[in-house]
Amino acid sequence: MHSQIQRFASDFARDDRGTVAVIFGLFFLVLVMCVGIAVDYSRSAHAKQEIAAAADAAALAAGRALMDGGMSDAEISEIGLRYFTENLKNGTTKFADVSGVTITPNRATSTIAVQVNASVPMTFMRVAGYEQVNTVTDTSTTFEAGDLELGIALDVTGSMCDRGSRQPCASARKLDALKAAANDLIETLLAEGDRPNKVRIGLAPYSASIQLGTYAGTASGGTSGDGCVRERSGINAYTDASLSMGGTYRGAGRFRDIDPTEGFQGYFCPEAEIVPLTADKGTLMAAIANLTAIGSTAGHIGAQWAWNLVSPNFNELWPDASEAVAYNDGKTTKAVILMTDGIFNMSYDNDRSSVQALAICNAYREKGMQVHTVAFEAPASAKTLLRTCAEQAGGQFHEADDAEALRSAFLKIARTLNGLRLTQ
Questions:
Q1: Is the Cβ–Cβ distance between 203 and 275 less than 8 Å?
Q2: Sign of the C-alpha dihedral, residues 175, 178, 184, 188?
Q3: Contact call for residues 103 and 73 (beta carbons, < 8 A)
């Protein structure tokens, strides 16, 4: 009997029938667990990705509100929360439970911090005791605290008037749209409250020439009888070389029609005067409010004087408070905006206005300028010119087909100049 028991035990130990099934069962269980973990991980990663995208959108929206000025911290946070909610709702994730969103503006550092607390319920990993995975998403946005010197060439030609170029107007559909857009830009760049950086802006309203007012005598060598000057000639025609280097901007009383097919309309000196660099928002807005439009389009002259406003080589012309800092001082962005609604059709001593404008745009790049061009309800040839100018200068071209689009373009430029960006 004892020997039978021993034999049975020995046979049982050697019996391998069913081993494969057992091993397969164990591996199948492990495989199911791995697939389950992968599914839960994928759900968690997907949820975190969409939460991060919504948080980035919230940070940028709140950052724009902070830059625009005039809002309380609570209002800024509310804007950010609204953007977060809308962006998350428009996403595809249904896996995460958001338990808290904190949006914190910091005016001293010009930053917005966003923190999102969320959890993703687990499915397969519950077997291992993990009910959920908690996640914290942090992001922030800031606008650079660098200084800014900006020259804006504003088209105040006759085509900005509803009734044409030969009678001045102070209010018209297109001119009023330009005034509103320019005011938005000024409000954004010179927002109320303490700022960590220095921002100064100059205005160069142009039409067939540019009105320099009290600065015309020096700039023209006494040849300007009405305060207006035409382009510079000679070797310094497309540079910002100081007036002492030769080549004055002569009075604009004599002109020529280079290309009649470009829509020549006549001379007419603009009434709106140039405004040297200033941080006084009231001065700038008063000048914008008083803009009137008349005359042809010497766009190259506007491009040149927007540059001269921010050029340290022209400090001899401007008041001390409006003198530009040196190029590449390590903390100052020098920028120009060139805006028009029409073809550059007026020139005097040099080549066509469009050719001269592109030569100036090419010179911008050499000085490291940030360049923005804006075509407002402009014909195709004008859009091509401004796009080419921006490309040559390494800048940005903006197209606006109506008043609202113009305001959006100017606000976009303002935010770019402020350097709004995500930092984490």
A1: yes
A2: negative
A3: no
**Encoded tokens for 138:** 């942090």
Answer yes or no: are the C-beta atoms of 398 and 372 closer than 8 Å: yes
Taking the alpha carbons at both ends of the chain, their separation in whole angstroms is 80
Which of 100, 125, 143 is the last residue in one of the domains?
Answer: 143
The boundaries of the domain holding residue 300 are: 147-422
Q: Are strands 147-155 and 332-340 parallel, antiparallel or unpaired?
A: parallel
Whether residues 176 and 281 share a domain: the answer is yes
For strand 332-340 and strand 370-376, is the pairing parallel, antiparallel, or unpaired? Answer: parallel
Strand order of the sheet with strand 97-106? 97-106, 111-121, 132-143, 420-422
Residue 2 lies in a domain: no
User: How many domains are there within the chain?
Assistant: 2
Q: Does 3 fall in a domain?
A: no
Q: Are residues 116 and 216 in the same domain?
A: no
> Which residues are CB-contacts of 269 (< 8 A; sequence separation ≥ 6)?
207, 208, 209, 211, 226, 227, 228, 252, 295
Instruction: Give the helix/strand (H/E) hosting 364.
Output: helix 353-366
Check whether residue 295 and residue 410 sit in a common domain.
Answer: yes
Q: Per-residue pLDDT tens, the chain, 424 aa: give them.
A: 555 555 554 554 555 555 555 554 555 555 555 555 666 667 777 777 788 888 887 887 888 777 666 788 898 899 888 888 887 765 556 667 788 889 998 887 778 898 988 887 766 556 555 666 676 777 777 766 578 999 999 999 999 987 655 677 888 999 999 999 999 999 888 877 656 678 999 999 999 999 999 999 999 999 898 899 999 988 999 999 999 998 788 887 654 443 444 444 456 788 999 999 999 999 999 999 999 998 889 999 999 999 999 999 999 999 999 999 999 988 899 999 999 999 998 888 899 999 999 999 999 999 999 999 999 999 999 999 999 999 999 999 999 999 999 999 998 898 888 776 666 6
End of a domain among 143, 173, 199? 143
Task: Give yes or no: residues 345 and 230 share one domain.
Answer: yes
Q: What is the CATH number of the domain that holds 190?
A: 3.40.50.410
Shared-domain flag, residues 259 and 385: yes
The verdict on 375 and 229 lying in the same domain is: yes
CA–CA separation, 58 vs 85, rounded Å? 9
Is residue 260 domain-shared with residue 374, that is, in the same domain?
Answer: yes
